[in-house]
């Protein structure tokens, strides 16, 4: 097996110890191993530590947290007469046609034009914003749609809006910090 020295970008830093490029040899089969046989055990522990860090990071990214979703919309001021052909629209939503409620659907999967079940939120007729608290996971997509209702009918659902959850991740605390001090000539 022919080996070549690994490029400078091959340095690793794990658990407070830096394994620099001159300590690693990259084999032609694609593997990386320590150039000093005495460092092999440390190198294997380093690879295991990197793998465990990646596994822990994967678990952390899948954790649910409480998130607050804020929505806003513009209410319609006109509607169409029901049962007319062709439709007669631009009818004011006042008097007996006034809005009674706003319905908000929020989901972690796309919301159909005819959703099954009750809306997530039912708000008063004049509501133009809502806040909803729910469990969310990093990378998850949230979907929301809005409709209004008056005594005669309910509107079609609004366009579907989405938001991908992006939970901030703070870096871990540095560990195994060491200091070396040399005074005078050795």
Q: Which descriptors would you attach to this protein?
A:
186 residues; mainly beta; Immunoglobulin-like; 2 domains; four-stranded antiparallel β-sheet; rod-shaped
Describe this structure in words.
The protein has one helix and 13 strands. The protein is mainly β. The chain has two domains: about 5-60, no CATH class; about 65-165, Immunoglobulin-like (Sandwich), CATH 2.60.40.
Beta-strand content bin: 25-35%
What would you report as the Rg, rounded to the nearest angstrom?
30 Å
Number of strands: 13
Secondary-structure element pattern, one letter each:
EEEEEHEEEEEEEE
Mean pLDDT: 76
CATH architecture title of the largest domain: Sandwich
The overall number of domains is 2
Shape: rod-shaped
Provide the helix percentage: 10-25%
Strands side by side in the biggest sheet: 10-9-12-13
CATH domain topology of the largest domain: Immunoglobulin-like
CATH class wording of the largest domain? Mainly Beta
In quaternary terms, these chains amount to single chain
By secondary-structure content and strand pairing, the structural class works out as mainly beta
Give me the secondary-structure topology.
Blueprint: E1 3-5, E2 12-14, E3 17-19, E4 24-27, E5 32-34, H1 40-61, E6 64-72, E7 78-79, E8 91-92, E9 101-107, E10 121-124, E11 129-137, E12 141-149, E13 161-164
